[in-house]
């Protein structure tokens, strides 16, 4: 997380995913990169160090740097405070009234009648009494590293800045006894999904705080239990080879479809206007985007492990 202005919380960690093949050697990696930072570590400098540390061919360097730049260029930081206002329906005269009401309420002089006059509904007035809005979405994990596949799904409040993918991944891997290299890959996958959900056309259109709760019982059915728990599967050597061939085909197809090179085309970077000009995502996307020529992203902020495969 970062801060753009005083008290303004922004998610500015960029999920970077590499899937590059040079002369029959495939390099796969995933990590997080700070969107805003100084120029101590550029994509070119990072790629050079990575090539040296992993004993890769020098031909990997420019392609790694280009893949990082492309993903940084497509990224838009997520402003949690702005999202709270948009989900609450704050805008125009009502938005100004809400802001004034919040300041007066801190001094014990808040007047709900002022908000009624500005057009606030009873539901919006009820929401103002809450500490924040929430938007709970289902997030899933389908992660393979080597012969091990981890699958899970759970609910995640995408409007709560205190929900940290890196902390969640660290705890889940510790609970399941998985090696540390799973943490950065899992956190990267979570950030990709959260990015897609937050900037989808309908991802932030409504708050889920007041939704009806299921009161049929506290115990899940057997079918639900199987779907809402982590599972770890160990593949055979033949299964691994088959899965890797499928992954390579999908990566090539995605690159051709997107006209990009060397980075995985997951549905996280929404190039077509961030869900339309009238979406909440589009109204949040007024922050500066770096160009592929920029060279000032900060050093990656999460631990990183890589995989190399020869085909």
Automatic annotation (TrEMBL):
One Gene Ontology biological process: chromatin remodeling
Keywords: Nucleus, Transcription, Transcription regulation
CC annotations in GO: nuclear chromosome
InterPro entries (UniProt xref): SNF5
Keyword Membrane attributed: no
A matching Pfam family: SNF5
Region (Disordered): 281-311
Subcellular location: Nucleus
Nucleotide-binding found in the keyword field: no
Top-level taxonomic group: Eukaryota
PANTHER family: SNF5 (PTHR10019)
Family: Belongs to the SNF5 family.
Name of the protein in its database record: SWI/SNF-related matrix-associated actin-dependent regulator of chromatin subfamily B member 1-A
């Amino acid at each position: 997380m970062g801060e753009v202005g005083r008290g303004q919380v922004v998610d500015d960690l960029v999920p970077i995913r590499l899937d590059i093949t040079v002369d029959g050697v495939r390099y796969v990696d995933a990590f997080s990169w700070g969107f805003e930072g100084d120029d101590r570590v550029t994509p070119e400098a990072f790629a050079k160090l990575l090539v040296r540390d992993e004993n890769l061919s020098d031909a990997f360097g420019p392609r790694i740097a280009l893949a990082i730049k492309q993903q940084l260029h497509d990224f838009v930081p997520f402003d949690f405070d702005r999202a709270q206002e948009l989900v609450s329906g704050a805008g125009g005269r009502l938005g100004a009234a809400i802001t004034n009401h919040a300041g007066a309420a801190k001094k014990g002089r808040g007047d709900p009648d002022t908000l009624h006059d500005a057009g606030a509904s009873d539901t919006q007035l009820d929401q103002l009494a809450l500490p924040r809005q929430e938007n709970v979405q289902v997030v899933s994990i389908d992660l393979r590293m080597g012969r091990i596949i981890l699958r899970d799904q759970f609910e995640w409040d995408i409007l709560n800045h205190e929900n940290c993918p890196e902390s969640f991944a660290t705890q889940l891997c510790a609970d399941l006894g998985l090696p540390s290299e799973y943490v950065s890959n899992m956190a990267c996958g979570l950030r990709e999904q959260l990015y897609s959900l937050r900037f989808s056309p309908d991802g932030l259109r409504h708050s889920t705080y007041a939704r009806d709760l299921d009161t049929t019982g506290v115990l899940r059915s057997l079918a639900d239990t199987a779907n809402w728990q982590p599972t770890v599967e160990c593949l055979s050597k033949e299964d691994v080879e088959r899965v890797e061939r499928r992954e390579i085909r999908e990566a090539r197809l995605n690159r051709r479809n997107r006209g990009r090179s060397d980075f995985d085309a997951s549905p996280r970077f929404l190039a077509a206007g961030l869900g339309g000009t009238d979406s909440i995502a589009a109204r949040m996307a007024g922050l500066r985007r770096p160009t592929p020529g920029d060279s000032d992203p900060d050093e990656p902020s999460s631990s990183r492990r890589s995989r190399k495969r020869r085909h």
